[in-house]
Amino acid sequence: MTTTAVSNSDTSSPPFYQLSQDTIQQIFSLLPLRQIVISKSVSKFFNQTLSSPSYLSLLPSLPFLALRSSPSHRHSLSNLPTLHAFDPNLNQWLRFPFNFLPFSAHQPVASSLGLIYLWADTNESGSPWRAQWKLFTITIESLQCRRQWTCLEKLEWGDVFDILKRPRLVKGNGNRILMIGGLKSSFLLNSSCTTILILRLDLETLEWNEAGRMPIEMFTCFQESSKFKVFGGGDRVCFSAKRIGKLALWDNSKGKADWKWIESVPWNGDGVCRGFLFEAGFTASP
């Protein structure tokens, strides 16, 4: 840790300004991100300190659950590009307008490392594996060398792929993935579901465990819908279906699964929400 004090020619300045830069950054790193934003407007010194790349690297991200437009409504909404995101910590919806962009025919569809990716192509392509309930893996190095994908399976897994109806994969925390689907009442192809089950796979040990299952009273709202949408990541996953009018949220951020409803959803046309995990944060100005 460096011990160089922040230079300041005014000897009558507050003692806080005489602290080392590392000490000041450690103090401010304890504040919530929203308080940091407010602190930047206190003085020029605070703004410079809280905008430095070394300090920004210490800040955690804010996990928002962002909505994206359905494919059939991207064109009609293209002249009003906006990101609607739900803040689970404040339990409220946020709106991020994109009217500052030099183009208008784009919609937010994904996010990574705090960056938002915008839809720019009207042509869609389906996944060739949509009906194949198996896991495949490949390293980035192997992908660049055009090697084959490897089927990820173990004999001990048994019928893990047969108990879920229309399973979806969502990125979990660390080296884990979540597989989410309807828990089938039997092994018949078109059997009814009793609830929605979340399974978690540790990619290091290749062991599954149950991360959560939707309460029966909540699942009854999804029973009339033949399909439901899943989006999120980490410790939070959202569920949406037609004719429900709200989102179901699985929240495991405190180490214990909590199920609740998200109200006042800004619908985008067909009554079904699609979305992605948006980990918002600060980055250094270019």
UniProtKB/TrEMBL annotation:
Q: Which Gene3D superfamilies match?
A: Kelch-type beta propeller (2.120.10.80)
Q: Where are the transmembrane segments?
A: none
**Protein's name according to its UniProt entry:** SKP1-interacting partner 15
